[in-house]
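Reviewers asked in the last cycle whether our approach scales beyond single polypeptides. To address this, we selected a multi-component target totalling 606 residues and predicted its structure end to end. The input consisted of the following lines:
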Amino acid sequence: MSRLRSKHEGVLIFSDYKKTSFRILYVAVLIFLAVAAIISIFPPLWLFLSSFKTPEEILANNFVLFPETMDFKRISEIWQQFQFGRFYINSFILVAGAIVCSITFNGLLAYGTAVIKPKGWKVIDVMVMATLLIPAMINISPLYMNIIGIFNRINELFDTNVWQIPYFSYLPLWLIYGANAYYYVLFKVYFSSLPQPLFEAAKIDGASQIQMFRYILFPLSLPIIAVVTIFTMNAAWSDFLLPYLMTRVNQSEQPIMVKLYNMYANQMAQVTMQERLMTIMFSIVPPIILFMLFQRQIAQNVATTGLKE
Amino acid sequence: MVGNLKRFFGKNLGGYLIMLPSVILFAFFIWVPLLKNLHLSFFDVTNYDTIGDFVAFDNYKTIFANDLFIRSLLNTLQYIGWSLLIGFFVPIFLALLVNEAVHFKGIFRTALNIPNFIPGIAATAIWVYFFRSEQNGVLNSILANLGIDKVNWLYTPNWSAIPLIVLTMTWKGAGATMLIYLAALQTIDSTYYEAARIEGANMWWRLRLVTFPTLFQNMKTLLILQVIAVFQVFYEPLMLTKQNPYSYSLLQILYKTAIEDMKIDEGAAMGVIVSLMLFILTFVYLRIVNRKQKAGA
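The resulting structure, written as structure tokens, was:
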């Protein structure tokens, strides 16, 4: 409690805590927060521990958090049996391409509207911002129709079958991350906060717009690029509807989320409870590790832009 | 004239070229499909390759005669209501508490934020086990340890599962929203509180006069964002309550119609209705908020 004596900020400060009633209130606050924290962590913790349980343990009528034995061999057995390695690789390929597109295209667009500002940039800005309103799924079937249309056209023109080209169907899955109003806003807010005379000076020195991007904007933008990368990783890893549609032809290219979704959508699938739990666990481990590594950057970014994913 | 054009492009061409690839992507992935939805909704379309005859408003008549679609529209109002009641205040409350904590502050902030990084489908898959109606469901087995009878969580008669679904969404999203409020709270200069204290303001008055006015700007934005987010409810009811009409969501019926049943035309009509609702809602909300701001100034 000694730390309360040096509390100078917030609604209640050290002088308030001289009163017993406020000290009791403070303890109540801590207890409440501890309960909230436990509620936040409990479901993934349960998942982790339960994926080691035997079928009898999982189906027990009384609640026991810890499994009787932690058989780590089961992890590698199930991993190999379901060839999760392949789905992980698919997800990583999806994520990598999504990051490249999301940084390049949203970044360039924001460079246009926040720094270069050619005539009419406001129209584009408003049209992009309006897309924040529209849930992506509303457009899914016309979008899918257009993609199929273009694929068929390419097949005719080049006399090939693009569905047989490895990961060709990932092209739209990557490129769609280049049209994300949310990442665009993150870049735009950041670029607008940079000192504009910097760009004026470069212009006077005769730098082209591409040079300005390459030598001034890009090096200064590494923090926001990191943030957009983290958010894109998380979003692309969790994405499933368009990946689900695009990998219906070639199921060996399914990312792990599509695999998980199929397991639940298809009740006929012969999978044990333990295998299901392990699948969920495999699908949440990478994003949680990502969060643990970068939580400071994530919190800071929310603080500066007032937006979350 | 030609000189003017030359000057115009000389000044702007570079900018346009830099923005062009991104604009093409926005057009291909969002703007064109949005317009194509409108187009398809007036035609007979049942496969991905061809567009059939013009049918005027038939698709709209069909979907408004569809009980499940009407049910989903009404359910959406319930989702909005519950998510404002539960989801809107929880992050504000958590931010106020975390901001006051001196002990374990970092641990609380991290723990509350973890659910946000669990992919939605995986999170919902976990909740499926928690809400199982059998005795061995996680919540029911915890109740059994406490000597309480099992509860049929998601299928109680006369009571929809919407509040529970909103609870799972709040579980996932509250931590991230809390960070936004927390950031706003940390911008408050402690001299304001100092001044309030000197004037003899107790805890409640300090909250009312200093804390809430600061949060108000964020609350206005996050309120509309939350309502928009509720329109996106999809895999939560899909996985938790499946075909149960009392928690069917708009995107769920859209998915069923356009993708599972391949009634692309009717799905397009639903998409147009939902887009219209979102545009009108946002427009009206912004008008109200802005008018209040002007009146206040």
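Residues 82-305 of chain A form a domain with the MetI-like fold fold (CATH 1.10.3720.10). We regard this as preliminary and will revisit it once experimental data from Aim 1 are available.
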